[in-house]
Amino acid sequence: MNVCAFTGRITKDPELKATQDNKPYVFFCIAVDGGKDKQGNKITDFIDCIAYSYSADFLSKYAHKGDLLEVSGRLHISERTDSEGNKTKRATIKVDSVGICSSKAKQEPATTPTAPNEAITPPDNAAISSELPFEL
Fold it and tell me: Residue 132's pLDDT is what?
């Protein structure tokens, strides 16, 4: 069985592209915590990923550099030969599902009521849900 799952921060804003047959895709990289080495230095693994169709469209609209993503898919190893005849291998995750766990987007600071009995009005969920591809 070929199944991989990672949680990591996206390293740059995803850019939507299209294949020759006009299928949307996004190539992106996530930085995953790899623990610590013998000297106690933090290790970060960079995982290349590619998402197609709905997942690509979702990422291009809602994911931004620094967002924490949960990615699952299949490991794909491709082998290439460069102009000098050297063979190289590249591991990429072909994304089956992806979700945004948290965003690093700057949020407005919460306001504190000035009067003790002043109520705080919750945000309008209708305005929020109109921007999301799912209902709240």
Answer: 53
Q: Is residue 15 a contact partner of residue 30, using CB atoms and an 8 Å limit?
A: no
Please give the angle made by the CA atoms of 27, 28 and 29, to the nearest 5 degrees: 145
Residues of the chain with pLDDT under 50: 108-120, 126-129, 136
Q: Is residue 79 part of a domain?
A: yes
User: Which positions ≥6 away from 42 have C-beta within 8 Å?
Assistant: 33, 34, 35, 36
Let me know: does 46 contact 29? Beta carbons within 8 Å. Answer: yes
| 136 domain residue, yes or no | no
**Residues paired with residue 24 on neighbouring β-strands, in sequence order:** 18
Both structure tokens of 71 = 């990615």
Q: What is the CATH number of the domain that holds 47?
A: 2.40.50.140
CA angle 56, 50, 60 (to 5 degrees): 30
Domain span at 23: 4-104+115-129
Count: domains in the chain: 1
Structure tokens given for 33 = 């915590």
